[in-house]
Amino acid sequence: MEINNQTGLVLEGGGMRGIFTVGVLDYFMDHNIWFPYTIGVSAGASNGISYASRQRGRSRFSNVELLKEYNYIGLHHFLRGKGYINMEFLFRIYPGKYYPFDFDTYRNSPDRFVMVTSNCLTGKAEYYEEKQDEARMLDICQASCSIPVLCPMCYVDGIPMVDGGVCDAIPIQRAIDDGFHQNVIVLTRNKGYRKKNKDFKLPGFIYRQYPAIREQLKLRYRKYNEVLDYIDELEEQGKAIVIRPERPIEVGRTSDNRQKLLDLYDEGYALADKLLSKLPCAANSFFSKRI
Predict the structure, then answer these.
(1) Quick check: 186 and 24 in contact, CB under 8 A?
(2) Phi-psi bin for 55: left (phi > 0), alpha (psi -120 to 50), beta?
């Protein structure tokens, strides 16, 4: 597969497992690798915006250093109505106080950045590109990351939304539909991983007024496993390059173990280097033109 101006970048979510993706993206930025199209879901969206704004190290800081100092994950946040992961801190306080998001660079970049959310009313994925309104962009990104049950529901343009991974966990088909038939896909699970074939049991009082999203949650494992099968096919056909952990990882969706997070970050960085060393010279030429 040759990487060129028709190659997309697809970023899976996975909560704190996304630190693997951060390592990959930091490697790309260290080597001036910029894709014309990036689509991210959940943690893939929140980590991807720092790549889209070309802020190397910003996502690593929020996932490691900021977590250690401000402990934004935990039951105490959940009991206060902030969610098990304090989204208000991450999307309102952090960007304004600790590490400002470079919206000007993001807005002026010619590259596309797409974020995925799940519409609670329709039970379908929504795909957003927002480069004009920073507040709306943050609303979309927060919605994309709002893990059902663990995080409060978010609203985009008045519409209730939850984590984009509920309806489109790995948005490779959207990238193809948008015209990018060759893609680099960053996954946060090892090759061969599949979810257990078991319907998700959701208590009746949760999202009771949103039957469409309840149905998506119930059958989520099926769609996830199907898209992984599809990605394996694309990889075998030479239509996708997949960067994924080489073995089962020890970092969970809400992990806060600093050393494990750093180790997973380092693995992502190293595997990106391993990938790039195998690419043809045509890819290097493409990258050099985008510096």
Answers:
(1) yes
(2) beta
3-state SS, residue 19: helix
Q: Which of 278, 269, 287, 282 is CA-nearest to residue 241?
A: 278
CA 208 to chain centre: 27
Give the span between the Cα atoms of 165 and 186, in whole angstroms: 14
By residue count, the chain amounts to 291
Percent helix, strand, coil in the chain, to 5, is 45, 15, 40
In Å, what is the CA distance from 91 to each residue of 78, 221, 230, 259, 260? 16, 28, 33, 24, 24
Task: Output the six-digit token pair for 4.
Answer: 């060129």
pLDDT score recorded for residue 289: 44
State how far the Cα of 42 lies from the Cα of 173, in Å rounded to an integer: 16
85 compared with 111, residue with greater pLDDT: 111
Report the pLDDT value the prediction gives residue 21, as an integer from 0 to 100. 97
Residue 1: band (very low, low, confident or very high) from pLDDT cuts 50, 70, 90: low
What the block records as the tokens of 59 is 């996502």
- The pTM (predicted TM-score) of the whole model is 0.91
* Phi, psi angles (nearest 5°) of residue 209: -85, 0
Among residues 193, 276, 156, which one has the least CA distance to residue 17? 193
